[in-house]
Amino acid sequence: MQNKNSKSIYSVPYFVWILLFVIAPIALIAYYSFLDLSGNFTLDNYKNFFTSVYLKLTLSSFWYAFLITLFSLIVAYPTAYFLTKTKHKQLWLLLIIIPSWINLLLKTYAFIGIFGLSGPINAFLQVFGISEQQILFTDFSFIFVSVYIFIPFMILPIFNALDKLNPSLIDASKDLGASNWTTFSKVIFPLTINGVKAGVQAVFIPSLSLFMITRLIAGNKVITLGTAIEQQFLVTQNWGMGSTIAVFLIIFMVIIMIITGQREKGATSYGKNK
């Protein structure tokens, strides 16, 4: 009984935290989503969300989040794989993670200087006789900077999954005559899929709600759900519509977490049989 009581006491801060910083904010957002500009109850916000404007905005957000996640995965997986083969892998991993500690705004302004008309990229192009190129305020600059910012969050879970992989399984695959591609597709990737799913969650979900990078790097040429929420709250002062978009954003995030959730069926079935 004492152990149960002590466990319940220790869990109080956790439940208080969840109540104050998870449930309460979501409940407040849901409440404001049913209010109009005058503070009266309305369902118009939800009706407006299903108009062509917001549906296109949602599809655009998913498209850019998909591209950011895809390019992050393409770069992160081979990087994480080669990191596990290096001698000082923890040191190299630390060097990759350190940039994520720098303030996001500082990194964004740094890329404004790099991609600007007077930046080092255009200076390098002029050496080869290429005139100034408008790199900033384009889809390329937005996706590039987003991938740079999120890529450590993709590398880390994949690295952990690869690092825990039993090398004897790879050796056994090669001993049985499997090619490198077959070994990767049938052994390595399936056994590290949970790391990939965790990386997808860490990149795709925040990519849906980007707003600072869209303003500073894309010059508002890229509009996401995060940008729309910012505009509704700070520009038009329509807290009801902004909250409605936030509600759907939360729903999308929950769906993505369910789809990419980790299911260790093998371990579960083993525990039951045991």
UniProtKB/TrEMBL annotation:
Print the keywords alphabetically.
Answer: Cell membrane, Membrane, Transmembrane, Transmembrane helix, Transport
Determine if Acyltransferase is one of this entry's keywords: no
The answer on whether this UniProt entry bears the keyword Nucleotidyltransferase reads no
What does the UniProt entry say about where the protein is found? Cell membrane
The transmembrane residues are: 12-34, 62-84, 91-115, 135-159, 198-218, 238-259
Q: Name one GO cellular component term.
A: plasma membrane
Name a single GO biological process. transmembrane transport
Family the UniProt entry places it in: Belongs to the binding-protein-dependent transport system permease family. CysTW subfamily.
Q: What is this protein called?
A: ABC-type spermidine/putrescine transport system permease subunit I
Organism source for this protein? Psychrobacillus insolitus
Instruction: Recite the lineage of the species.
Output: Bacteria, Bacillati, Bacillota, Bacilli, Bacillales
